[in-house]
Design goal:
The complex is a heterodimer of chains A (about 300) and B (about 350). With about 300 residues, chain A is an alpha+beta fold. Chain A has 3 domains: about 140 residues, PH-domain like (Roll); about 110 residues; about 40 residues. Chain A is about 50% helix and about 25% strand. In chain A, strand 2 and strand 3 form a beta hairpin. Chain B has about 350 residues and is mainly α. Chain B has 2 domains: about 270 residues, no CATH class; about 80 residues, no CATH class. Helices cover about 75% and strands about 5% of the residues of chain B. The radius of gyration of chain B is 25 Å and the shape is globular. The chains are: A alpha+beta (about 300), B mainly alpha (about 350). The interface between A and B is small, with 8 and 11 residues.
Chain lengths: ~300, ~350
C-alpha cells in the first residue's frame, strides 16, 4: 500500500496474500487433468487393456466422456457450471489441435502431453490469480485488493463489521492457514444456499397427457463471498484472526462506554446551562451598577 | 495325530495367540521408533507432523465409529480435526457392547487400516496367500503352521514390493496408501502441545484396563477362541490357525509400512542438514533415476527391470545424500581431514612464519 493511500494517523498492521495451497479447489481441477491424461496414456499404451484402445476414436471417446462426466459432477457439487465448460473447452481444443496437426492416429500419445501442458497453464493461471490478491490490515480499516485484469478493491471500516466468520479446512489446519469473512452491516459477505426439489408426472401416452411440476425451495443465508472480498487463506490464521478481532473490538463502543458518553453529554449540557446562567447574572449585575451610577 | 491330550486341549490353541501378540508387540516398538523420529523433525516440519497426526486420528475415529456401528449403538456425531477426533454414539450402551466399542477404539487402529491394505493387496499380489494345512494339532504344530503362513506371506509381499511397478496406477496407489498407513498407524501426538503425548505405555495401559475392567468378557472371548480351535481340530480343518495368520499378516503389513515411513522420515531428517537448495537434490533424484531406468529398460528389456530400477533409485538417492552430507556439511569428516583442519587452525593462530 502506498503512503499516499493511507489516511491520517493510519498505521498498516499487516499486508497479506493467500497461502499457495488456499486455492486447492482450483488446483485440483488441474491435478485431475494431469492424472486423467497420464492414466489414459497408460491405458492406451502400456496397460493390459491396450487392445481395447486400439482405435483412436475409442481413446478420444473415453477421454472426452470421463472429462465431461467429471466436469458435470464437479459443477453440480460446487454449483459452478464454468467447470463443465472449462473441461468441455479443453476437450474441444484438444480435438481441434489433433485435427490441425493430423495426429488423430496417435491420440494415445498426444492426449497425455496435451493434458499435462494444459494443466501447467492452469496451475500458472491459478498462481497468477492467487498473487493478484492483497489484503491490508491497518489500524483503521481492512483493504481488500485483487484482480488480474480488472482491479477490484473493497474497504471495510472496523466499526462497520457486525460479524466475523472464520473457517479452516483440514489442509488449512495442517499448514496453518484459514479464511476470515468480515460481514458488514449491509450484509456484504453473506451468500445464500438454495435447495430446490422438482418432480414431473406424465399420464397417458397418445391422447391425454398431463404434466405436473411440483417444486419447493429453501434458502439459508451463509457467510460466503468472492476471494477478493474476504481474507482468503491467510497465514498464520490464528494470529490474523486475533488481530482482526482485537481491532474490531477496539472500534466498537460497549454498553458501559455508551452510558459513560451519555453521562458526559449530560454533564456538558449542565455546564453549558450554568455558564449561560452565570453570563445572565453577570449581565444583570452590570445593568444594576449602571443604573446606580446614573442615579448618583 | 501326535501330541498329548493336554497339549491339544490346553496349549495348542495358545500358539497362534502368542504369535499374534509377539508381532503386535513388534509393531508397537516400530511405532515408538517412528514417533521418536517424528519428534526430531517436528520443529522443521510442523505441517508434516500435523498431517501424520491427522492420519492417526482419522484411523482412530474411523475405528471408533466402526465399533459403534458393529455394536448397533449408532453414531450421533462424528468430528475430526488435526488435533482432535470425537465420535459420539446415538444410544449409550453398556456391558459387552461398551466393551466391544472400546476394544475397537484401542486395538482397531493397529489392525483395521492394515485390513484395507490387505484387501487391496489381494487384487495385486498373485502369491503369498497360501495357507499351510497342518495335521499336527499341538502347540508346536500350530506354531509352525502359523510361522509358515507368515513366512509365505512375507516372502510374497516383499517380492511384490521389490517388483512394484510405480508407473502402474494401481501399484502407485498401493504404495502411497502404504506410506500413509505407516505414517498414521497411531498418532504421533494428540493435541497441539507436545507434552500431551500418546505413547506405547498409554496404549498398553488402556488395553490392560479394558481387559482387567471386565475379566468375564475376556474369559468368554477365550472360551470362544478355544471352541473354534476344537471345532477346527474335530473337522480336521485349519480355520483356527488361518484366522490368526490373517492377524499376523496384518501386523506384517503394518510393520513394513512403518519401515517405509521410517526411511522417508530419515531421508527428510538427513536432507534437513544440507544447506540451501542442495537439499532438494535427493528428492529430485528419486523420480529422475527411477524414470531414467524404466526408460532405459523400455529399449533394452530385462526380466528384472522393475526391481533393478527400484534398487538403482535407492542406491542413487543414498549416494546423493551421502555426497551432499560429506561435501556440504561437516558430517563424515575423516581423521586426516580433522587433523589437517586442526593444523590449519594452529597455523592461523601462530601467524605466518
Amino acid at each position: 500500500m502506498d503512503q499516499d493511500e493511507l489516511l491520517e494517523n493510519e498505521k498498516v498492521e499487516k499486508i497479506l496474500s493467500p497461502h499457495p495451497l488456499s486455492f486447492i479447489g482450483l488446483q485440483s481441477l488441474c491435478m485431475f487433468l494431469i492424472v486423467w491424461g497420464v492414466l489414459i496414456g497408460w491405458l492406451a499404451n502400456f496397460s493390459d487393456l491396450k487392445n481395447l484402445f486400439a482405435g483412436y476414436w475409442v481413446i478420444i471417446l473415453a477421454w472426452g466422456l470421463v472429462l465431461l462426466i467429471v466436469g458435470i459432477i464437479a459443477s453440480l457439487i460446487t454449483i459452478r457450471w464454468r467447470i463443465f465448460f472449462l473441461y468441455f473447452g479443453v476437450f474441444i481444443c484438444g480435438i481441434c489441435l489433433m485435427l490441425w496437426m493430423g495426429s488423430l492416429d496417435s491420440a494415445g500419445i498426444f492426449i497425455p502431453f496435451y493434458m499435462v501442458a494444459i494443466s501447467i497453464i492452469g496451475f500458472l493461471i491459478v498462481e497468477l490469480y492467487r498473487r493478484s490478491h492483497k489484503y491490508i490490515i491497518s489500524s483503521h480499516r481492512i483493504v481488500f485488493k485483487g484482480g488480474v485484469i480488472t482491479k477490484q478493491e473493497r474497504t471495510l471500516r472496523y466499526d462497520k463489521i457486525t460479524d466475523i466468520n472464520s473457517k479452516q479446512g483440514i489442509l488449512g489446519q495442517i499448514f496453518g492457514f484459514g479464511t476470515i469473512i468480515p460481514i458488514s452491516q449491509s450484509g456484504f459477505g453473506l451468500g445464500i444456499d438454495n435447495t430446490f426439489a422438482a418432480g414431473g408426472v406424465q399420464v397417458g401416452e397418445k391422447k391425454v397427457k398431463f404434466l405436473g411440476l411440483f417444486g419447493g425451495g429453501k434458502e439459508v443465508q451463509t457467510p460466503r463471498t468472492r476471494s477478493y472480498y474476504e481474507l482468503h487463506g491467510v497465514h498464520p490464521y490464528k494470529e490474523i484472526k486475533k488481530i482482526v478481532e482485537n481491532l474490531v473490538q477496539g472500534s466498537v463502543i460497549t454498553p458501559y462506554q455508551q452510558e459513560q458518553v451519555a453521562f458526559q453529554k449530560e454533564q456538558v449540557d449542565i455546564q453549558k446551562q450554568m455558564r449561560d446562567l452565570l453570563k445572565k447574572q453577570s449581565g444583570q449585575n452590570e445593568e444594576d451598577q449602571e443604573i446606580e451610577r446614573k442615579t448618583i | 495325530m501326535a501330541g498329548s491330550l493336554i497339549d491339544i486341549i490346553v496349549f495348542a490353541p495358545l500358539a497362534p495367540i502368542f504369535g499374534v501378540i509377539l508381532f503386535w508387540f513388534i509393531q508397537l516398538l516400530f511405532i515408538e521408533n517412528l514417533k521418536y523420529l517424528l519428534t526430531k523433525i517436528r520443529d522443521n516440519h510442523e505441517p508434516l507432523c500435523r498431517f501424520t497426526n491427522f492420519l492417526g486420528i482419522l484411523f482412530q475415529t474411523i475405528c471408533h465409529a466402526l465399533g459403534y456401528t458393529v455394536t448397533k449403538s449408532g453414531i450421533s456425531s462424528f468430528y475430526i480435526s488435526v488435533n482432535y477426533g470425537k465420535v459420539a454414539p446415538k444410544r449409550e450402551k453398556t456391558g459387552v457392547f461398551e466393551w466391544m466399542s472400546n476394544a475397537f477404539l484401542f486395538i482397531g487402529p493397529f489392525f483395521i487400516p492394515s485390513t484395507l491394505l490387505l484387501i487391496y493387496l489381494f487384487f495385486l499380489m498373485d502369491k503369498g496367500f497360501n495357507i499351510i494345512s497342518t495335521t499336527n494339532y499341538t502347540f508346536s504344530g500350530n506354531l509352525t503352521a502359523f510361522g509358515e503362513n507368515l513366512y509365505y506371506f512375507s516372502e510374497g509381499f516383499i517380492g511384490f514390493l521389490s517388483n512394484i511397478d510405480l508407473l502402474h496406477p494401481a501399484h502407485l496407489g498401493f504404495f502411497i496408501l502404504l506410506i500413509f498407513l505407516g505414517l498414521g498407524t497411531r498418532p504421533s501426538f494428540i493435541g497441539e502441545k507436545k507434552p500431551e503425548k500418546v505413547d506405547m505405555l498409554f496404549d498398553l495401559k488402556n488395553i490392560r484396563y479394558n481387559i482387567l475392567h471386565k475379566p468375564l468378557y475376556i474369559f468368554i472371548l477365550f472360551l470362544i477362541v478355544y471352541f473354534l480351535s476344537y471345532i477346527s481340530f474335530l473337522f480336521k480343518q485349519n480355520w483356527y490357525v488361518t484366522l490368526f495368520s490373517i492377524l499376523g499378516w496384518l501386523s506384517i503389513i503394518a510393520i513394513i509400512s512403518l519401515i517405509v515411513a521410517y526411511l522417508i522420515i530419515i531421508l527428510i531428517k538427513l536432507t534437513d542438514e544440507i544447506p540451501g537448495l542442495w537439499k532438494l537434490l535427493p528428492y529430485i533424484t528419486i523420480p529422475v533415476s527411477y524414470l531414467s531406468m524404466r526408460s532405459f529398460f523400455l529399449y533394452y528389456p530385462y526380466s528384472f527391470s522393475k526391481s533393478v530400477s527400484i534398487l538403482v533409485t535407492i542406491i542413487s538417492t543414498s549416494l546423493v545424500v551421502f555426497v551432499l552430507l560429506k561435501y556440504r556439511t561437516n558430517k563424515f569428516k575423516t581423521k586426516v581431514d580433522i587433523k589437517s583442519l586442526m593444523k590449519l587452525g594452529e597455523g592461523e593462530k601462530d601467524g605466518p612464519r
